[in-house]
Amino acid sequence: MDDSHRFEHFRTQVHPAIESKLNEFQLLGLDSVTEQGIWDYLIKKRWKKVKEEMKLYEMIQEILSVKASDYINFATIEAYKASEFSMENEDELKELLK
């Protein structure tokens, strides 16, 4: 199965909008945000259940309308999903219960 998102071929065309959103986030003090992070948010959250093909101007509108709070919520959830904590590791369990 193809791992690429169906809008991946638009990525170079919407790059200026993503870069603009990245600059906006950096002005707000969100220095840890990356272009890849914004793109991941778009394909995993905003465009996950799009039923029909979006037009380029609609994609750009969606990118420019991303709110910092929505992105931060997404990034936080993704970080929790990626964390590797096991209740079987005795040292980690002791650290948790301190």
Kindly summarize this structure in a few lines.
The chain has 98 residues and is mostly helical.
Question: Can you tell me about this structure?
Answer:
It is a single chain. The termini are far apart. The chain has one domain (8-96). It is an all-alpha fold. It has helices at residues 11-27, 35-46, 56-64, 68-82, 90-96. The longest helix is centred in the N-terminal third of the chain and has 17 residues, at 11-27. It contains five helices and no strands.
Structural class determined from secondary elements: mainly alpha
Task: Give the overall form.
Answer: elongated
- The span between the termini is 46 Å
Give me the count of strands: 0
Alpha plus pi helix count: 5
Low-confidence stretches: none
Largest sheet: none
The domain tally reads: 1
Amount of beta strand: under 5%
Write down the secondary-structure element order.
HHHHH
Instruction: From the alpha carbons, calculate the radius of gyration and give it in angstroms.
Output: 17 Å
Q: Which whole number gives the mean pLDDT?
A: 85
Helix content: 55-70%
